[in-house]
Amino acid sequence: MAGSGFVSEVFVSIQGEGLYVGLLQLFVRLAGCSLRCGYCDTSESQEKTKKCVMIETGRLLDNPVDSRVLADTVEQIIGRTSTIHSISITGGEPLEQPDFLETFLKLTRRSGKPHYLETNGLHPEALERILYLVDIVSLDIKLPSLCGGGDFFSVYERTLSLLRGTELFCKVVIDNGFDPGEFEKAFKMLSDFNQDLTLVIQPATPRGDCEPIDGNTLVDLYVKASARLRNVRIIPQCHRILNVR
Ligand code: SF4
Question: What pTM was estimated for this model as a whole?
Answer without folding.
Answer: 0.96
